[in-house]
Amino acid sequence: MPELPEVENVGRALRDCLRGKRLDGLQVNYGGVLKPSPRQVRSALVGKRLAEVNRHGKYLILDFIGDPNEDRNEDHAYLMIHLRMTGQFFILDDYIADQHVHLIFDFEGRPVHYRDVRKFGRLELVEDPIRPAAIAHVGPDMLSVRLPEWRERIGHRKAPIKALLLDQKIAAGLGNIYVDESLFLARVHPLARPCDLTPTQLKEVLKRARQVLRLAINHGGTTFMNFTDFHGRPGNFRRKLRVYGRAGQKCRDCSATLEGVRVGGRSSVFCPHCQPNPAR
Ligand SMILES: [Zn+2]
Questions:
Q1: Is 149 in the active site?
Q2: Centre of ligand 1 from the C-alpha of residue 150, in Å
Q3: Do 228 and 219 meet the contact criterion of CB atoms below 8 Å apart?
Q4: 211 is in which domain, residue-wise?
């Protein structure tokens, strides 16, 4: 499943390759991924240029702009993209037939394929380029939330910190892999309750979460599409994982055996020595 680093890299690729280019056409093979309808999406976007690509958590919002009208008002349309489980973009030199390609955007002759094996992804017209109503329930972005706000949102909570970090209503963008890595670096046990942590520990969790996300972004995320064909190659961040997926193996810092625990239905891996359980 694409997480914040993958989504950020998709956004950067779309911005780098397509900003300023005009959308000349939109071929729809399967309209179920478009909201409100293929006809409405096509009529809102075709003829406009891609002006900017924004990201909030795991959502991308494409800002399209039309030619200035007589009143010199700028005519914008915004397309919000949530890749969900298997949504992918491929910016190709040619059209490629594939049963999982549901949309092909034509940017001045450059075909941009939207491929989604599970069809859970959504591309939806929204009214705002930063924080549309459709994601009003989603908390501030993990990379930009300020420490006082983050403390306010999480500091008094009594649920396990692992579950709260995964809760996109508190802050958006952390998935399972990155939560485990962040808690390890912050030396905080996944079952610890934020209300029991010191202000310094809470600050450390946020700092480490950002560090992990930035590192993953710079390494192309844990999976990475090379945008030349449908065969993604694995991002090289996976090699850098300290705890995720390593239960039973040795801690890279202290050589203790890493343990697994389920928190809120999700598997978690931690080091019992580096991240002591506050309840014991
Ligand atoms: Zn350790």
A1: no
A2: 27
A3: no
A4: 147-270
Catalytic residue among 193, 266, 272, 276: 266
Distance (Å) from CA 274 to ligand 1 centroid: 4
Catalytic residue check, 2: yes
Instruction: Specify the pLDDT at position 236.
Output: 67
Task: Pick the closest to residue 141 from 177, 173, 183 (CA basis).
Answer: 173
Whole-model pTM above 0.85? Answer: yes
Residue 227's pLDDT is what? Answer: 43
Domain boundary among 108, 135, 162: 135
Which residue among 58, 115, 162, 208 is the active-site one?
58
Q: What is the CATH number of the domain that holds 35?
A: 3.20.190.10
Q: How far apart are the CA of 189 and the centre of ligand 1, in A?
A: 11
Neighbours of 226 (CB within 10 A): 12
Angle at Cα 215 formed by Cα 209 and Cα 217, nearest 5°? 100
pLDDT in tens, 26-38: 999 999 999 999 9
What residue ranges of the chain have pLDDT lower than 70?
68-72, 220-236, 279-280
Domain end (from 81, 105, 135): 135
List C-alpha distances in Å: 272 to 163, 166, 178, 189, 233.
18, 21, 18, 8, 33
**What pLDDT shows up at residue 11?**
92
In the reported structure, the alpha carbon of residue 244 is separated from the centroid of ligand 1 by a whole-number distance in angstroms of 13
Same-domain pairing of 161 and 70: no
Q: How far is the CA of 272 from the centre of ligand 1 (A)?
A: 7
Active site residue 199: no
